[in-house]
Structures are given as C-alpha cells and as structure tokens.
Amino acid sequence: FPEGERERKIATCSRHRSRYAPPDTPDNFWEVGFPSTQMCVERGYIKEDLSPCPRPKRRQPYNVMFSPKGKEQKT
C-alpha cells in the first residue's frame, strides 16, 4: 500500500480503539505461585490485629432451668 492509503486504512479500521481502552490487570496478577506471608502483609491481604477479638454477647441471657450444683438442698 502507498503511504497515504495505508494511513487511511489504519484510520478506518482502528478508530474504535481510541474510544475504549481495556482496563489494566491488577498488580501482581500474572505472578505464578503463592506469595509469602510477609509479601501478603506488605500488599495488605492480611491485616494483623494484635488486640483479641471481643466475645459476642447474647442479647437475652439463658433461662435458668436447674439450680447450680453447690446450692442443692440436702435432705
């Protein structure tokens, strides 16, 4: 193709490329294998929380069905 015709052909075939750009892949997407624990912490996959998690509390306390062992009546 001559230079001018080639430019026109490229402009007609490839004009949609300027409208849509595919999104980039995330960082470290193409790395094969599992990352080390240190690498996961650095990337933010693992959040280290040094405080112990609080125990969940019941909204309603349990109903007492039996008296405790130490308070049984002896007859």
CA distance, first residue to last residue: 113 Å
Order of helices and strands: HH
Number of helices: 2
> What average pLDDT do the residues reach?
80
User: How would the global form be characterised?
Assistant: elongated
Question: What can you tell me about this protein's structure?
Answer:
The protein has 75 residues and is mainly α. 24% of the residues lie in helices and 0% in strands. The protein contains two helices and no strands. It has helices at 3-13, 37-43. The longest helix has 11 residues, at 3-13. It is elongated and about 105 Å long.
In short:
With 75 residues, the protein is an all-alpha fold. It contains 2 helices and no strands.
How are the elements arranged and paired?
Layout lengths: L2 H11 L23 H7 L32
